[in-house]
Amino acid sequence: MKNTQSNPETKKLVAAQGARLIEDGMVAGIGTGSTMAFLIEELARRVRDEGIKIVGVPTSFQSRILCMKLGIPVRDMQDTASLDLAIDGADEVDPSLDLIKGGGASQTREKIVAFMAKDFVVIVDESKLVDKLGSTFAIPVEVLPAALAYVERAIRELGGDPNLRIGLRKDGPVVTDNGNLLFDVRFPPAADLRSVDQALHAIPGMIETGLFFGTAKKVLVGGGTAAQPTLKTLTRG
Fold first, then answer.
1. Would you list the domain boundaries of the chain?
2. For the whole model, what pTM was predicted?
3. Which residues partner with 58 through β-bridges?
4. What single-letter DSSP state applies at residue 159?
5. Which of 85, 100, 107, 91 is nearest to 34 (CA)?
6. Per the residue annotation, which of 110, 142, 152, 208 is the catalytic one?
């Protein structure tokens, strides 16, 4: 469920700016998604051309494979307790810099990496800015397969409309890197998503949501046009 208004040129601009935040000697969390793919490419160029020495901790198999392909040293999440910096994209960003993430089905690992990091920075294009979370993107909820029916019922009792995420090029549901399944959940516009998030976390078998409250300290936003891209920085008040 991606925003079709996204501009590749603005993604490249903001990804290049994000890559410059990763300094020589850092152990950095590397997120998942199309904007992060541009960041990984730029980071690989810096490793190759500038000789910086960094270690990346990817949040998904997709990002890990790309890092290794392009020559960026990687470390497994389970071998990492803290990070100097983590950078990732988002599917929605509200005025308080709260987020919805999980379009790439990696929100659980992304949240762990965000909390590992001394500083968590988000890079997006301006199409991801919303007045209220849930405006354009459903909330991803990762679920243990054995708890699928129970969690679906519990979400409906909370007023949500859960839909099992189905694979585009495979029969059956999307399976996360953790071996679990995903619901994409819509709640009524008036719903208090902070309270919803707390209630979701109380459901046995629910692993993690794509709601990120209070985690991002800074958001880099690419905008403008392909001919004249712009960049702005949003910081938490």
1. 8-130+213-235, 139-208
2. 0.93
3. 30
4. T
5. 91
6. 110
Query: Average pLDDT of 37-54?
Result: 97
Res 1 pLDDT > 60: no
Helix-helix angle 61-69:34-49, to 10 degrees: 30
Residues whose CB falls within 8 Å of the CB of residue 51, separated by 6 or more in sequence, listed in order: none
Each as own residue / partner, the long-range contacts of residues 41-46 (CB below 8 Å, 24 or more positions apart, any chain) are 41/15, 41/66, 41/70, 42/15, 42/16, 43/19, 43/72, 44/70, 44/71, 44/72, 46/19, 46/22
Tell the CATH topology of 139-208.
Alpha-Beta Plaits (3.30.70)
Q: Is 192 helix (H, G, I), strand (E, B) or coil?
A: coil
Query: End-to-end distance of the chain based on CA atoms, in angstroms?
Result: 30
How far is Cα 37 from Cα 159, in angstroms, rounded to an integer? 36
Place of tokens 């979400």: 155
Q: What is the CA radius of gyration of the chain?
A: 17
Quickly list DSSP for 90-138. -SEE-TT--EE--TTS-HHHHHHHHHHBSSEEEEEEGGGB-SSTTSSSP
CATH 3.40.50.80 fits 8-130+213-235, yes or no: no
Q: What is the pLDDT of residue 142?
A: 98
Question: SS3 for 228?
Answer: coil
What pLDDT is stored for residue 9 in this prediction? 85
- Integer Cα distance of 22 and 29 in angstroms: 10
110 is catalytic: yes
